[in-house]
Fold this protein.
Amino acid sequence: MSAPHPDVVVVGAGSVGVPIALALARSGVRVTVVDAAASAGQGANKAAIGGVRATHADPAKIRVGSESLRTFATWEAEHGDDLEWVTGGYAFVAYREQEEATFHALLDVQRRHGLDIDWLDRDALLERAPDLEREELRGGTFSPGDGHCSTLLASHALYDAARRAGATFRFGERATDVTVAGGRVRGLVTDRGTYAADVVVNAAGGSAAAIAALAEERLDVRADLHEAAITEPVAPFLNPMVVDVRPGPGSANVYFYQSKRGQVIFCLTPDPPLWGEDRRATSVFLPQVARRMVALMPRLRHLRVRRTWRGVYPMTPDGSPLVGWSEGTQGLLHAAGTCGQGFMLGPGIGTLVARMVQGSTTDEDAATLAAWAPHRAFAGQEALR
Ligand SMILES: Cc1cc2nc3c(=O)[nH]c(=O)nc-3n(C[C@H](O)[C@H](O)[C@H](O)COP(=O)(O)OP(=O)(O)OC[C@H]3O[C@@H](n4cnc5c(N)ncnc54)[C@H](O)[C@@H]3O)c2cc1C
């Protein structure tokens, strides 16, 4: 006879916690999700611009990202909810020899892991994104199966599906303690009550280190501030997500796409990073990002920006997530530190966590979990983080 399923409490109904709840409930696990916010997806999830790619440098991200990509791309056909999904591809553009060399070097590992991605020369890339600045453009990689969607519609659709599958959500409720006895988890305490559970999943995003600290554990996740913006809607002119990883004044990269509704949505990575929790938008961001974008795609200068916002990347020292069981407390499972990719990795992390809880992980999962071990040495840096 198989052992009864454990009860699981998940802290955080964000990009990662909601798909975890969905995967657990679908596996027949009794799961309750606690979130301090008033509804699902109100943390970093809401700040994400909705880029979804399997195109990574880390093989673990490629595996988990590929599963997530399938989930988002097929969601409407399978469940009927419109996520505003567009399979527009990702174009990593190269204007200098060094980016061209980096992208070529990555193609090898990306293709070995089954990704549909190619190097396009200048003219072929301009067919995909005709408005790119032509001067000095060398080409770029293009992965046609990647895409983008609305993070709000997606989190709501996955939340609805999780509830239908049997998951319970408790909003407006803050986790204040993890109950531990004899070295193992017994439950979770919140400002509104207590939950007995054999497993507590820490999916608290930028606050994951604080949740780990409740069990007297150190977790290397820091809140890293990023801003984004959205324009007025205009007629379609841009299909792929465009990513430019050249450093600029005060920034490490810029990325943008045109949504199904016609708005251009964009984001910039500050360099040096801005650590902290202050989510107020700044007056620095828009002129900084606009200069870069107009240089990269001159016709964007005509667009009017409707809104800017600021959110956090739950950042780790090497740019890869922290997913694994706690070494000190049995039954505490971390699913955190997804950096700038938690939305696009969420569904894949969800099914991975469900297999971990049920003790049914595969050899591939073992490789992913070794790469993402929460207390690893953080030796390298993911190239496409
Ligand atoms: C400007 C910007 C653009 C981005 N663009 C993309 C993108 O295109 N694609 C992509 O994949 N990612 C993107 N990201 C990154 C993405 O937003 C994050 O990686 C992802 O949302 C993290 O998911 P999470 O579930 O870990 O955290 P969250 O979504 O923040 O969820 C954590 C939840 O935990 C809750 N919580 C925290 N502490 C407690 C507590 N004590 N008790 C109860 N609840 C608690 C919070 O309320 C929150 O809802 C972007 C981020 C920013 C800021």
